[in-house]
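Researcher: Going back to the complex we discussed earlier. I've cleaned up the inputs and rechecked each line, so this should be the final set. Can you rerun the prediction on the complete assembly and write out the structure?
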Amino acid sequence: MRKLYLVLAALLAAHVALLFVHPSGAQQLDTGAGLDVGIVFDLGGRGDKSFNDGAYLGAERARRELGARVRFIEPGEGSDREAGLRLLAAEGMELVVGVGFIFSDDLTQLAREYPNVRFAGVDYAVALDSIGNAIQPPANLAALKFREEEGSFLVGALAALVGDSKKVGFVGGMDFPLIHKFEVGYRAGVKAVCPDCEVVAQYAGVTPEAFRNPGRGQELALSQYQSGVNVIFHASGSTGLGVFEAARRRGKLAIGVDADQYAEAPGYILTSMVKGVDEAVFDAIKQVADGSFRGGIFQLGLKERGVNYVYDANNRALIPDAVHARVELLRREIIDGKIDVPSVK
Amino acid sequence: MIVLAFLVQTLRIAIPYLFAAAGGVLSERAGIIALTLEGWMLTGAFTAVLGAHYSGSPWVGVLCGVAGGVLAAALHAVACIRYRGDQVVVGIAINLLAVAVTRFFLRLAFDSSSNSPRVVGFEFGTGDGGRGTGVLASLANPLVPLGVLSLVLVWWILYRTPFGLRLRAVGEKPEAAASVGVAVHRIRWIAVLGGGALAALGGTYLALEQHQFTDSMTAGRGFIALAAVIFGKWEPRRVALACLLFAAAETLQIQLQGLQLIPSQFVEMIPYVLTIVAVAGVVGRAAPPAALGKVSE
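Model: Rerun complete. Updated structure for the full complex:
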């Protein structure tokens, strides 16, 4: 039995050690005499090719341009995210950033405990009180939210205009309100340019695993393409890589999400609905630096360039000029408030 | 046409289940709980991608996948057989370890916490995506027939070879087997390593079809395969049917989801509900191998 415990202890120790050992874990980029900024990444950490990398880019830029000293913490799976935030707050950072909606409650709590530290939450989920009104975060906490539905609206219009089919597809990750936002905006975009088009919307599952199941994503996409869909927009994390694989296999198109995903399947990515996480993080740091930082809920939409779709040298050939002009017109109308994009089912 | 598309998709989804369940039957019939199927699959998927990436050959990928699965299974065997660890505890530990280790090496090898670069897969025919666009073309992967044959092979080993007889004896009554000179530990070792290899082939199939490894990409398929083993009462032919049944339910959900006929939550719970039904003895009694999970001296 003692041997058994030794083996188990060794396994456990190895496991715990691996959770903390990251090749580029908690590193300090030490330059300049600017302000101290701490960033805690969401699960996945750097290299997720999505919003963690976006936050990293924003912080890098702040380091270069503002001389900020940035400290990163990458919590592993199951380890305490709150501990990372608390550590940074207690160390006297001037700004602590939590990347991912999962930090929302912890940030609110810590902002109350450390009134002199400023906090920012990327993708912060605003809590609602019992009658459904948004609860304002503390004054030293900036809730950075993105109007994903607006970006989704534009790629929906693109999908319908380029797709050459009465059916357009959507693959979501976990079936829950955060992802419904993408679907609802996308649907509205499709309907705006093609009222009789049908949107086939499917979800990969009902647990967080649904964001990491490319096999399922591929099967969902294959059956959608089979049914006559020519363009699929995914909002499903790495499950979407399966959607791209299906697009490759069938010679159809897919739309990426969060970051420009063109490189994952060159030639098969029509565009990507990108979130300006780098800009948002940079702006937050800059505001702290020049003293204009204030708390509250910030909705970053098309107008604020918080969301956008990719149109560059890579995909210009896939998007006819007339289509691009039409989508840009829609962008103007949304920014001017002429189109009201829904965000709930 | 619709029926054919349905059957083909069912088969594609079933292949990882068939491989993993074959590994599960082999291991469990020898008395070692195969809670580690998920970890074996994930490890296999990762080492397969490593092999395919550095060699440029899918077959090297398959070999590396098998090697990875055997390695993970060896860890399981050392802890459970050599050191008589609690099989459930060790199983859970190795599943967690597999998630962390694959992520660690993913970062080390490819500097990404999300996915590896694209690797070669089994590509036939023309075009970037390979294999053409026909419905049946998606089955043109040598791992598909292997997957179908995996449970047939396990059935044949268990019921048609002297080794299989010994293996079953070891799973039912190890003391009796030992008393007539059967090397209990050696047979369990072989069963677990073989189980690891088979489950890893399931992970390899997933990874090569996807042309890359992504973090935690097996997404619980090992547990569904384990459910199939239990629902199939540890009998390879029934287990194969259970795998196909679960895959058909998934396919049905994928094809009908657009119509909102069946809530996705319902389909996702089918394997587990059926497992509970089987264990509770609603449709005949599911009797596990008598020595399953028991420590043998």
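Model: Worth noting: Residues 125-130 of chain B have pLDDT under 50 and may be disordered.
Researcher: Good, that matches what I expected from the previous run.
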